[in-house]
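Tokens in:
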């Protein structure tokens, strides 16, 4: 190793150390100033900031009761509308069932009347003769002489 180089390195290092110390001191001073300005700014912002209250806390008791009563009125309106619709559908269903039952009763009565008429016609045809035996002489006269 070259001793001159070592010596030059020491002197340059010493010169750099002195310059580095002054640069470090300047850097530390700048950083300290910056830190102080940030703290001052945040203190000023915190102190000058107005206290914000939520709009909920500003409501009075009357406003709360009005809001609750209106919401209950809406809920009651929705519930009563649903109940009314259910009632109307129930009435319509009952009327339809009643009409169908009445129609079925009418059909049953007509069917029964036809069955009774058929039964009476059968009984009448089974029991009756065309001309009773006591009336046969009169029937023969009527058949021969249509003018009388």
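Residues out:
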């Amino acid at each position: 190793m070259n001793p001159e180089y070592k010596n030059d390195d020491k002197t340059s290092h010493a010169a750099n150390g002195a310059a580095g110390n002054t640069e470090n001191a300047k850097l530390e001073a700048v950083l300290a100033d910056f830190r102080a300005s940030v703290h001052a700014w945040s203190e000023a912002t915190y102190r000058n900031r107005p206290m914000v209250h939520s709009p909920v806390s500003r409501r009075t008791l009357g406003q709360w009761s009005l809001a609750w009563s209106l919401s209950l009125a809406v809920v009651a309106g929705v519930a009563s509308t649903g109940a009314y619709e259910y009632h109307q559908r129930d009435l319509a269903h009952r009327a339809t069932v009643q009409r169908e039952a009445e129609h079925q009763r009418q059909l049953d009565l007509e069917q029964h009347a036809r069955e009774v008429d058929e039964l009476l016609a059968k009984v009448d045809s089974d029991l009756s003769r065309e001309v009773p035996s006591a009336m046969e002489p009169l029937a023969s006269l009527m058949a021969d002489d249509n003018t009388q």
